[in-house]
Queue: 2 jobs
Job 1
Amino acid sequence: MLGDRLRVLRQQHSLTLRQLATAADVSPALLSQIENGATDPSLATLRKLAQVFDTSIAELFSEPEAPAVHISRSGSRSLLTAPPGQITYERLTPGRGDLEVLQAHLAPGDASSAEPWAHPSTECAIVISGEVVADIGGEAYTLTSGEAVTFDSRLAHLYRNASNQPAHLIIAVTPPNP
């Protein structure tokens, strides 16, 4: 699904694999593998591609034919992985573009990204277990199990696990703001 969506976006923007690769600072071979479903991109690669297309990561996963009722079952969800030391997400919602809900796992010392980043949405993160530090707009907010934070995600942000125990959270993101 992601490969097909990426190919459509690339063609809509009249880009060759090489042009997109140059713009996103990735290899043409990697893009070809993603489009053909031979490999899954890292979260960093998804962010670069979303920037090139001036869209959200969620839009890269949009499914125009998403069902009206979507059941998300453990073990069959789309998995968004990142380099070691960063967050892993399981996608809980289909790609209709109206709402993105992710289940995230942070091992001790892991973070959602190397640097805080921003995107046009509203975001809410609920800590299910463990402790998470939400760095938002230059401020650090420590959240424990049962606590949540909601914010304008145009503020640069990241989540990190500064504890020595794993952390689990649910992140909901609305569609981009105008």
Job 2
Amino acid sequence: MNTSIDMEKLREDAVHIFNSGFTCSESVIYAIKKNFELEMSDDAIAISSGFPWGLGGAGCICGALAGGTMCIGYFYGRTEPGDPRNQLCFKLCNELHDFFKENYGAACCRVLTRGMEKQSPERKAHCTKMVSGTVVKTAEIILANLKDSRFQDVC
């Protein structure tokens, strides 16, 4: 695993893949996976494919925020019932959520994109900013807490 993350490269990778056809959630996971050099299956990207446009178009949570949350869960989540590790995961996901709301005004896709056509250049540019900021904040959260991660032995 790589912990020397070039944040500008991370941002560029997320924006590039987002503008190449991946959705917001897929782009955040792709860039984190690539830049941290994670031995994570591409299935993680596929698992996130239902989040764009607010859960498959329903307009709920922003996919970029969902992708970042999934990445934090990868590092800080639990795999066994009763493992208290989920408490740190909750705290870090809440930190990402608060960052997102503070910087973009809401966590809900339909609120964030109100009045924008789904395939419009205006919406793509707006969403690109959220993907860009979210992937960097996600990486910052991950890096700031690695000593408490399930990956602490490889850091």
